User: Fold ATP-dependent DNA helicase RecG from Roseivirga misakiensis.
Amino acid sequence: MSSFFNTSIEFLKGVGPQKAALIGAELSLFTYGDLVQHYPFRYEDRTKFYKATEVTGDLPFVQIKGRITKLDTIGELRKKRLVARFSDDTGHIELVWFKGIPWVSKKLKLGVDYVVYGKPAAFGRKVNIAHPEIEVLTTQNDKAAFLQPVYHTSEKMKAKFLDSRAMSKLIRQVMVLAERHINETLPQKLTDQFSLIEKKFALWHIHFPSNTELLQKAQFRLKFEELFFIQLRLLKLKISRIDKFRGQIFNDSALLTSFYNDHLPFDLTNAQKRVIKEIYFDMKSGKQMNRLLQGDVGSGKTIVGFICMLLVVGSGSQASMMAPTEILAAQHYEGLKEYADKLGLGIAKLTGSTKTKERRIIHEGLRSGEIKILVGTHALIEDTVQFKNLGLAIIDEQHRFGVAQRAKLWNKNTSVYPHILVMTATPIPRTLAMTLYGDLDVSVIDEMPAGRKPIKTMHQYDAKRLEVFGFMKREIAKGRQIYVVYPLIEESSKLDLKDLMDGYESIARAFPENHISIVHGKMKPKDKDFEMQRFVNHETQLMVATTVIEVGVNVPNASVMVIENAERFGLAQLHQLRGRVGRGADQSYCVLMTDYKLSKEARTRIETMVKTNNGFEIADVDLKLRGPGDITGTQQSGVLDLLIADIAADSKILQIARNAASDLLDEDPELTNPENANIQRHIQSLRKTTVNWGRIS
Ligand code: ADP
Ligand code: MG
Assistant:
């Protein structure tokens, strides 16, 4: 951007150093450029004046012209209110104030022409507006042909008279000056193709729209542009990564064939086979693989990971699998060890609790190449862990790892980067995945292993606990096992532990004939494993736990999941937990226990769970309820600091923008074509001014 946009806002009329500092501190707005991009968050519709008789309680905000014909303070003490009768030539409505009565009543004059704006409400046959905006009628506001922008400000700013109106005036000042400095950022081909209005025009009308149609055009143009440049950047990253980074070539499939023919415990689903082919193709290509493997809980990602390891190990290299928790690492290790032993492959487990002596042996085995497969937690990315030749690094349940940790894995092989496979069951809506993982190749397992029965999910109020216990007993009598999960808000909270212990005691009382395992985050890994193992071995029938069992654990005979205080869990978490059952051939159940009192959102979550088993459907509801930042966690939220577009609401525009960016790069991969000069220039200016780009990769 030109230096004009870097001018400090203190040079604007009516600002000065003190107010500039305040605006900077409160809203992080420092320059003309910042103000231009401080978009309104909503608009007041001032395109029409209503007549008093037209105003009803179910209208949204309305604007009326008229006069105050009567003004009274009525009621006593805390019920005191100021009531004005506001009349035009058709009739009247009431205006009401509960606060600031002395000040308002002094300001209002009988017989003066006013413009009133507010949200009407009906009380019996009367209609009133509480705390309306009221201004003296002027030739300006009489025109009634505009949408009033509403800007974010803060209490501190309002105290210095920097309210939304004042911000609007400052922005108007800048926009008038900025006019000749605003460059078009898109090539004409795109603006023609998608009927986009000019950038300059769009910026003006996002702040000062003269009608709804223009506002919509301005919004579409700016959202498109924002999403287009993000996608362009991601797609460029992907192209340059594929071009730049060499990958080891793995193509010896003898080991794999032996496993396939002699040891594979079940037939792979078609989706699993397809995904394995995609990964093989990458690993034979000579380029480094960076692939995301998405598949709903229980879709069988682990075996896919293992089979890919075999190609690597068979070609004389090493492979690792990193999991987010000790329990999960242990479980992967147990599972993979069984296969590895049959094939005579060296395999080891490395976690935070591995003893120093054993650790030393493992380090040695990795350096010598004797250990072919390493399974572990993030302990395996520590600097002391060195491989002879790491060829494939698998990360399970990616959402728990940061981008930085992904990068550390890259450096585990000093001569050639290892191939990277990220496996996630977090159902991420496609649009969000496109942005978060837009630089990765994506494979999807969209099919469950044969013979699985869909899990039946039920909602029960706490009062029905005895019936639920009865149901659990009948399932145990059939030989099934049961999880009972308690919420955990903070890993350290004593209260949660007490909830869990109370729960444990009530279960122990209700099921005197059964054995019960208990697992929670405060336990030593060794004790946790012991308890887990008892459940796996079917020595216990019930597993009382906190959400530590959320990811990955696999006990096919466990067919009932009871979730206590289900209203306290998020949708993604409920879905993950439910995924712990339904892994065997028996009918599985998930029981969501809640209090009678439920917030609207909690009710939506529970109803969604009861209605569907489809992770993507659940993810879409989740995205609508929570917004994208929460879903991805703080680690990646920087990517989604969007100025105007909304990943959830604007998924259509996102898709259009992604396609447009992809087509453009097909035609002009280096963006050197003169007709794309606008794009080049804008990317350069973004590099200088935006911090977000770096965080995307
Ligand atoms: P996730 O995708 O959630 O990680 P897992 O890899 O843990 O799922 O697999 C869930 C269960 O399904 C495991 O018991 C696994 O052995 C089994 N499984 C995986 N693929 C198949 C298949 N094609 N047929 C039958 N069972 C399978
Ligand atoms: Mg898994």
Observations:
- The longest strand covers residues 62-74.
- Residues 254-285+300-424 form a domain with the Rossmann fold fold (CATH 3.40.50.300).
